[in-house]
Amino acid sequence: MYSVNRRVFVQRTALLGVGLKVGLLSPEPARASTPKKMSIARYKSSPAERDGVAEEAQRLTRRVIRDLGGMSRFVSKGNVVWVKPNIAWDRKPEQAANTNPDVVATIVKMCYEAGAKEVIVGDNPCNAQERSYPNSGIRPAAEKAGARVTYLDKRKFKKMTLKGKALKEWEMYTAMIEADTFINVPIAKHHSLAGATLGMKNLMGVCGGQRSRFHQDLSNVLTDLAVFVKPKLVVLDAIRVLPIHGPRGGNMEDVKRKDTLVAGVDQVAIDTLGATLLGMDPKKIGHIVEAQARGLGTMDYKSLSPAESLV
Question: What is the share, in percent, of the chain residues with pLDDT greater than 90?
Fold first, then answer.
C-alpha cells in the first residue's frame, strides 16, 4: 500500500474530471487510428435519368470519400491536383462510356474544400478531345465546379523511365506525373482485349505515343503503369456500367445501373470489386492477377474490411 498526499490527489481528480467533460462534450466519436483503405457507397434506389442521377452522384461521391477519412487525407492546402477521369469517347453521359460528370465535378469541389490551389481535369482520349470533352458532360460540369479543364499538349509528353516488365520507358504527360496529388476516376466497363476497363486501365490516358502497342501485353503494361503512376486516390464510378460491348459502347440497351461508387488506395482491390460489378471473374483478368502478384494490392478486397454505406 502507498499513500498519496492531498495536493497530488486533487490534481489527479481535476484531470480526471476534465477528461470526462471532454469526452461527454465531444461532438464526434473518436476516429479509428488506422484509416480505411477502401470504401463502398451504394444508392438506396435507382432514380430515373431525368430526375435524380446528378444528386445521386454527388451524394455517393461525398459519402465514399468521407468514409475514407475525407479529402483532406489526400489533398493538402496549396496542392495542385490532377483529376483523371475517363473521357475517351464522344459519348453522352448516359451511354456509360466515360466517367460520370457529376462524380468528377464533386471531386473537384471537395479538392478545393480541402485547400487545393488548383484542380486540373484532363485525359488523352481515343476520339477527338474537342468532341469527347464537351459531349461527355465532363468539361462543363468540371469547369462549373472550378476546375481548369485542359486539352493535353503533345509537346508536354516526355519520355520517362518506368523500369517495368513491358514498359522500360514511355512518353508520359509531365503535368500529370508532377502534380502534387493525382486522383484516378475511372468508370467500370467491358473491354474486348483487357477484359475490363477499370482503374489501372484508365492510366493509359497518362500516356502518349502509339498506345496500340500496349495491346500486345496488356497485363504487364497496365501493371507497369499502376506501379509508376501510383495515384493517391482512386474513385471508381459504377453508377452506370457497361458490362458488354465496351469500351466505346453506344447502345443504351447495354448500359446497366449499379448505383455504386468504390474508392480507396488499393488499386487491385478496387479493380477486383469493379470486375465483380460487371459480372466478371477477376481471376480471369490478366492485369488484376499480375498486379496482385507484384504486391500492388490484394484481390481479397473483403480482407480490407471496407467501409460500406447505403446512401
Answer: 85
